[in-house]
Amino acid sequence: NLSKRLQVVASYVKQDAILADIGSDHAYLPTYLVQKGVIQKAVAGEVVKGPYESAVKNVQRENVSDAVTVRLANGLFAIQDGDGVDTVSIAGMGGPLIAKILEEGKSLLTSVKRIITQPNIHAKAIREWSVDNGWSIIDEKILKEDGKIYEVVVLEKGNASYSETDLLLGPILSKEKDEVFNEKWQHEIKQWKHIVQSLGDAKNNPIVEEKRDQLNNQIQLVEEVLQK
Ligand code: SAM
């Protein structure tokens, strides 16, 4: 059974999309989407041999080899001319790594209409990449599974600009402010306050003072959003 996390990612794949799932590991996501009849064709990309082999095995076992092509490749270079990929998913990695994969392979995104990302941490890196590269955030979700909190950020082509707070918290998530969102950021604030406290004694060190000011500023911005 597909995890709740990947089900949320799957919910953003349109009927009959042609998907490239990058960092697919077992290829659970494309396999599930084919079996549900959502898509007929997908590429599953993996850069590491072990996960690549488990993807190949799983696709064979589930009898979806005709629909899901597994490729050993770095990031978006799993996409080939003629695949007709219109949707990309990149899930289960840190935001900075997802942003790096998008940046390095952006020449392969010309026919792509939608990018579905699921950063485990630092979603901000993806939001920043989107602004810099002519993509805008069309939806976001936050969810908790097995005690861990995950974000999903969905991009389509378009120009947008976001405030610093929106880049950090998410322009849509910070408006919805659901329970998991509040939990995540209350936890972050707590950690930042700990850091501020531990920096408290270092007087007359401009670097430390700057760091402390930055954190205090961030704490204030996020608290404002939570209290609004
Ligand atoms: N996407 C699946 C999910 O969300 O459950 C698997 C997530 S798994 C934690 C991350 C996978 O990304 C690993 O299998 C890793 O080998 C792969 N990966 C990391 N960097 C990659 C890259 N540059 N290109 C392709 N795959 C990559």
TrEMBL record:
<dbReference type="InterPro" id="IPR006901">
    <property type="entry name" value="TrmK"/>
</dbReference>
<dbReference type="InterPro" id="IPR029063">
    <property type="entry name" value="SAM-dependent_MTases_sf"/>
</dbReference>
<dbReference type="GO" id="GO:0160105">
    <property type="term" value="F:tRNA (adenine(22)-N1)-methyltransferase activity"/>
</dbReference>
<dbReference type="GO" id="GO:0032259">
    <property type="term" value="P:methylation"/>
</dbReference>
<protein>
    <submittedName>
        <fullName>SAM-dependent methyltransferase</fullName>
    </submittedName>
</protein>
<dbReference type="Pfam" id="PF04816">
    <property type="entry name" value="TrmK"/>
</dbReference>
<keyword id="KW-0808">Transferase</keyword>
<keyword id="KW-0489">Methyltransferase</keyword>
